[in-house]
């Protein structure tokens, strides 16, 4: 493991140089990796592992859209694509990539097939950490590991296909074989990770739930809506409000932040913009700190997990979720976005 200094703090990181694919293939050479669930992470991880040369099968509910997708992606019924029960039976590493609520419903099915010596793999610390709510308590004679790609399964696959890798967290919860650590790292390399950052199940789930509800998704959408609304209410056109809130953010400024940091993005804007941003940044921080602390409290207390489980286990929930996404898609803001995106591609 390499020790890398992050802003003055030393952390250990596993790199692809020190743990190459050949080593990962060797560690997992006798394993059948059963990817259970073929939603967003399932396809990314299963296809990357298959292309990397691992022995992978997929388990998915038949007669579901995800089953059809698995067939389209080249998995073959009876050879590499099975029912959840049969894949879990055949797998020596059971990669539980069902939705977090689905993992609760299917736990008795998975548990029954977790014979001694097998490995239980997750991409989230959810089920294990919130065990009072999920009842996911693995038997003592199996390894329990986690590799959580830090991004969408879609990005995991896209980056892999283009020769890159998405960074992932990894963790060991239970080491029955004495080899859980190297299995976790090998799985991390196998699914197409770039760098692998060690964590534990609780830290992974607390940070992940906070991040996606906060800056990555919830806060992002909320602050965009707020600024768009202010600009519209003050008489600006939809296109002006959108361009000044979203288009410039995604097309010009955030790529600069990704490339070389916030100060670099600032330095490439006018002195007028920099002065204003530095002056207002503190007010935004002050306004959002209490909200982010509330959010973390809600994650830590298990309230966010309870809500996820309650909503995710409600029959017909996917339809309700789709209705909420439709409302977002059809709002003036995002309809304006659709038109702006068309202009973007036309100008290429
Ligand atoms: N979506 C991502 O990109 C992402 C990123 C990092 C980690 N994760 C984690 O990976 C895991 C999988 O997430 P996902 O977003 O791919 O899941 P998902 O919501 O896309 O669902 C995955 C599959 O679960 C199946 N499923 C759900 N409930 C079921 C039930 N009751 N019975 C049978 N099948 C059921 C669905 O058919 C679907 O194919 C989760 O633990 C998630 O937190 C996801
Ligand atoms: C892709 C995310 C947001 O990082 C992941 O955590 C998820 O739950 O989908
Ligand atoms: Mg998440
Ligand atoms: Mg995440």
UniProtKB/TrEMBL annotation:
EC number(s)?
Answer: 1.1.1.86
Give the first-level EC class, as a single word.
Answer: oxidoreductase
Q: Which SUPFAM superfamilies match?
A: 6-phosphogluconate dehydrogenase C-terminal domain-like, NAD(P)-binding Rossmann-fold domains
Where Mg(2+) 2 is bound, by residue? 208, 244, 248
Task: Cite the binding residues for substrate.
Answer: 270
Keyword field contains Lyase: no
- Domain KARI N-terminal Rossmann, by residue range, is 9-199
Pathway listed for it? Amino-acid biosynthesis; L-valine biosynthesis; L-valine from pyruvate: step 2/4; Amino-acid biosynthesis; L-isoleucine biosynthesis; L-isoleucine from 2-oxobutanoate: step 2/4
Where in the numbering of this chain does the KARI C-terminal knotted domain appear? 200-347
The coenzyme or cofactor needed here is: Mg(2+)
**Keyword annotations:** Amino-acid biosynthesis, Branched-chain amino acid biosynthesis, Isomerase, Magnesium, Metal-binding, Oxidoreductase
From its record, what is one biological process in GO terms? isoleucine biosynthetic process
- Top-rank taxon of the source lineage equals Bacteria
Keyword Cell membrane listed = no
- List positions binding Mg(2+) 1: 208, 212
Pfam families, alphabetically? KARI_C, KARI_N
Annotated Gene Ontology MF terms? isomerase activity; ketol-acid reductoisomerase activity; metal ion binding
Q: Member of which family?
A: Belongs to the ketol-acid reductoisomerase family.
Any idea what this protein is called? Ketol-acid reductoisomerase
Lineage start = Bacteria, Pseudomonadati, Bacteroidota, Cytophagia, Cytophagales
Give the gene that encodes this protein. Answer: ilvC
């Amino acid at each position: 493991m390499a020790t890398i200094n992050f802003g003055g703090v030393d952390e250990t990181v596993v790199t692809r140089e020190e743990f190459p694919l050949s080593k990962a293939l060797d560690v997992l050479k006798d394993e059948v990796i059963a990817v259970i669930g073929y939603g967003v992470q399932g396809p990314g991880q299963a296809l990357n592992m298959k292309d990397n040369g691992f022995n992978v099968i997929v388990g998915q509910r038949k007669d579901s859209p995800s089953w059809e997708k698995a067939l389209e992606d080249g998995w073959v019924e009876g050879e590499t694509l099975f029912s959840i029960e049969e894949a879990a039976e055949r797998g020596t590493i059971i990669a539980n990539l069902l939705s977090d609520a689905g993992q609760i419903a299917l736990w008795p099915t998975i548990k029954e097939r977790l014979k001694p010596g097998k490995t239980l793999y997750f991409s989230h610390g959810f089920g294990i950490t919130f065990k009072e709510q999920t009842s996911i308590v693995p038997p003592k004679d199996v390894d329990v590991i986690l590799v959580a790609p830090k991004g969408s399964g879609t990005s995991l696959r896209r980056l892999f296909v283009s020769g890159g890798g998405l960074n992932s967290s990894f963790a060991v919860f239970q080491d029955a074989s004495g080899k859980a650590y190297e299995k976790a790292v090998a799985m991390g390399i196998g699914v197409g990770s770039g760098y692998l950052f060690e964590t534990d199940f609780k830290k992974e789930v607390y940070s992940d739930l906070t991040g996606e509800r906060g800056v990555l998704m919830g806060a992002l959408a909320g602050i965009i809506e707020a600024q768009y609304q202010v600009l519209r209410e003050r008489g600006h056109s939809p296109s002006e409000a959108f361009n000044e809130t979203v288009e410039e953010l995604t097309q010009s400024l955030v790529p600069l932040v990704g490339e070389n940091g916030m100060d670099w993005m600032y330095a490439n804007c006018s002195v007028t913009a920099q002065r204003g941003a530095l002056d207002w940044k503190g007010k935004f921080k002050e306004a959002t700190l209490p909200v982010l602390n509330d959010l973390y409290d809600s994650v830590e207390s298990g309230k966010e997990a309870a809500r996820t489980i309650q909503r995710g286990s409600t029959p017909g929930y996917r339809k309700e979720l789709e209705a909420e996404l439709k409302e977002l898609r059809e709002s003036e803001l995002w309809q304006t976005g659709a038109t702006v995106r068309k202009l973007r591609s036309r100008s290429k």
